[in-house]
Amino acid sequence: MSGKQSEKxxxxxxxxxxxxxxxxxAPPSFGSIKARIRYASRTLGWSANRTKDAWYADxxxxxxxxxxxxxxxxxxxRYAQEELRTNDDLIAHASALLVGHEADFYSxxxxxxxxxxxxxxxxxxxx
Length: 127
Hints:
By secondary structure, the protein is mainly alpha-helical. 65% of the residues lie in helices and 0% in strands. The longest helix has 17 residues, at 81-97. It starts with a helix and ends in a 10-residue tail after the last helix. Mean pLDDT is 76; it is low at 1-9 and 120-127.
């Protein structure tokens, strides 16, 4: 994984939303920061305060899964889905390498690993 890809994979959901708001929902061509925040707020149906907190990546806020999906839908950007696909691909590759070597043990191990890698098993407290 290149340094740039690694850096992107470490991006928090708040940082992702901040980037999406600033670059895709209300890019600089929309005028002043105040106008851009107001536009983003209307576009997403968020309160002005919520949008401003996300715009400035306030560390006290958290982004819900529904909000992430909405941002992804409106911007075409993806958060975590690519990382999840990569994890699944790596696990599948490792599983294939171990076929025939104590298959029962390894299949249970990789099933458990896959379930842990799924977003619905994460706490959302990554940072």
